Amino acid sequence: MADLTGDIARLGMSRRRILQAALLAGPGAMALAACARADSSTPTGTAASGAATLQIASPTNPVKWPINPGNEAIASGLSPEKDAVLRLYNYADYLDPGIIKSFEEKYADTGVKVELSTFNDTLEAMAKIRGGSVPFDIYFPSYDQIGKLVLANLVRPLQHSYIPNIANVYPEFLNPFYDLEWQYTTPYTLYTTGIGWRTDRVSEDIAARPNPYDVFWDPQYQEHLAVLDDYREVIGMTLLRNGGTDVNTGDDALLAAVRDALLQMNEKTQPRVTITGYTDLPEGRLDLSQAWSGDLIMAVSYLPEGTDPAILRYWFPKDGAGVVNNDVMVSLKGGQNPVLSQLFMNHVMDAKQAMNNFAYTGYQPPQVSITPEQLISDGFIPPNLQEAIVLPGYFDSGYRLLELPPDTEAKYLAIWQQFKAGA
Amino acid sequence: MAKRSQRFLWPALAIPSFAWLALFLAIPFYVVLCIAFGQVDPIFRTSIPAWNPLDWRFDQFAITLDRIFGANNFYLAPITRTITYVVTAVIISLIIAFPVAYFTARYAGKRKGLVLVLLVAPFWISYMMRMLAWVNLLQTDGIVNSVISLGGLLPVEVNWLSGKPYTVVMGLIYGYVPYMILPLFAALDRISPSLLEAARDLGASGFDVFRRVVIPMSIPGIAAGMLLVALPMMGDYFTSDLLSGSPDTSMIGNLINGTIQTPGQSGQAAALLLLVLLVLAAPMFLYTRTVARSETRS
Could you report the predicted ipTM of this complex, rounded to two decimals? Predict the structure, then answer.
């Protein structure tokens, strides 16, 4: 899940969003939002952002982040903090409560309590972390925020000796382009962005189209489809649909074409803009949706009783040339429990815990022990959703949504604003 | 001595409400101003409010005005859409509310209280919950469709929740109609029955009484009701979000909400909010003035 703009669209019927509903029900939500933004402007990182420039990591320009003076990794072999409250900061329903329980049991002698706070989108989360009012220990962003986190000195470098379970994940994550030598990050989940649909409502095989992304402009699906409420994903998808291969482009001509295409999409199909596809699709409110791979795996559990899971399908380019990303875990500098934080990351990467988390969230962990064949043969994923499995090779062939330079980001957000205004 | 303490007592009783207003209206409003006239952090794209009015800049305001009146005026679409929706919804609300209020005031007799309570009862549930209930009712395989199609006999399948303007307008009407009923009831209830009897005695037909006595006397109630429903409808965004979710029905509220949450655009959101406030303050001001005038007259 990259940056997610908007949040009310997520107020579907799902349990994972009910808390947000409570949050937004207050009449002062707007004023509060304004205050929250105001808070974030007395940030710890103002000095840094004033002078320094943002470094952009990409597969062709991998970055080894600096270790800011005074922010060295903790020593190895320290004992965990006593009677600590370990504060996690994550999307709602994006972590199996069983992991928290088993962690508390494993370290019961330290008296640790784990507290999970949730955010609606990483933009909001970033503002709160910079505000520094809550000492969160672990944050679960996409890697497109690492540059800003390091620049504002908000993350703590890892002491690798606490995290032996890194051996369980794909070796790429020992040296990812966004954080060479995994100084700050451990991988959390993998996902592709594709198209999900119901075969009982959509008769054609979308995967067989020459350009499957065209379905979002096809009037026959008018009013029965959705795109993700995520500016990077929708603009990225439109760039690919227009024949591009750079989903992070700052090129004005390409972006103008994207804007025109999106306004055209509004006209032709009136899509919903939501990230609740994982319930809307199985519950029949949508026939077709832009989706993250994890959404379709999760959708199986939201199907009404008696509905055959075989009606769900997911498409991602066969050659792996689609949008593929991963979320990470970072230890925040504002947190009070560096040792427990790193032990918790280690715990999440334990093979068994990771599988439990996969079952709960639908999002695949980068565990080497997972093979697609086994996921299908174990009945973990129905064969019709085979394409929702993230293959390691995708990370070579796929496109990544990278951190954008601020001026490019502003262009993307302006397009998104216009699209959402229904102009 | 007693007189003196009384002189301080009454103003002192007003302190809590002034404190409340200062804390939750004046200060937040100042924050909005500071954001609207502030700057944007170049890297994090969070807004940097300008707390000192001398530092205020009009860049964000200029962008907002340009998007309304300039070449790429895409703010105009949600603005005109909102006005269309609200005007339609207010008129239909009035058509629904007037007979209800009239009946309650004139014919409910002893059960007036009960009728009013029953009318207002659904609104004890939060607006959000009621809209979520509509989401269930209006699904393609929901109750509304199965009633319209007589349980599946007729081939009717309306996809209510897929960006239909009429669904959003319906949601707005349902959500706010009691705020129309209550002031209308108050106005109609105040009309003394003897006035109506006098009109009949002087030869007016039933319709004449309604047209020439009831309607003119209920105008303050109609105005109050229209204002009371129009103002929150103008700022509403979750009705459209829940019952449509499509950019095709985005209203001003959705535009402001989306803009606030977008990094680097909170200044524009604040500017937009101020503009909406200015525009809405005008009818409010007119209304309070006419009410004040009519009260001094009577």
Answer: 0.81
